Amino acid sequence: MSKQSPEQDVDFIKALAELLNANDLTELSVKREYGDDDSLEVRVVKQVNVVTTTVAAPAAATAIAPAAPAAATAAPAVVEDPAQHPGAVTSPMVGTAYIAAEPGAAPFVAVGATVTEGQTLLIIEAMKTMNHIPAPKSGTVKRVLVSDGTPVEFGAPLMIIE
């Protein structure tokens, strides 16, 4: 905190958080100069959770089952957070993800592909720099969670490798 009143600093930080939410931002950083050797630096970050769900079409039934009684209720579906998966490869930066070296080219990897540690999985463009994202371990690509040309946040899950 600065040499200013702590209540003023707290009010300032609350105002920044409200500004973050009101403008649908994920991060805001401010440095406030009060004078010689007196400043306040604040970084407000909103956690963004990306949830991806896959719905499979039901298989065709050979026999029609009787209708369930009216009192029966279906169990709620469990939504898996890909970022919590032990094989998740997460984004090391904010940028735009590209799954191929150039438009129309074959993707670096696809679902079912075997990758080796260090192999390029995709590219994230950040500030006009193309950053190759390497596989953190060897394994098989189970899921690709981003599409070509989509924006990604820091820590967002990109792929699942098992």
Automatic annotation (TrEMBL):
Keywords: Biotin, Fatty acid biosynthesis, Fatty acid metabolism, Lipid biosynthesis, Lipid metabolism. The keyword Lipid metabolism applies. GO terms for biological process: fatty acid biosynthetic process. Pathway: Lipid metabolism; fatty acid biosynthesis. SUPFAM superfamilies: Single hybrid motif. Residues 86-162 form the Lipoyl-binding domain. GO terms for cellular component: acetyl-CoA carboxylase complex. GO terms for molecular function: acetyl-CoA carboxylase activity. Pfam families: Biotin_lipoyl. This protein is a component of the acetyl coenzyme A carboxylase complex; first, biotin carboxylase catalyzes the carboxylation of the carrier protein and then the transcarboxylase transfers the carboxyl group to form malonyl-CoA. NCBIfam families: BCCP. This is Biotin carboxyl carrier protein of acetyl-CoA carboxylase. It comes from Falsirhodobacter algicola. The lineage of its organism: Bacteria, Pseudomonadati, Pseudomonadota, Alphaproteobacteria, Rhodobacterales.
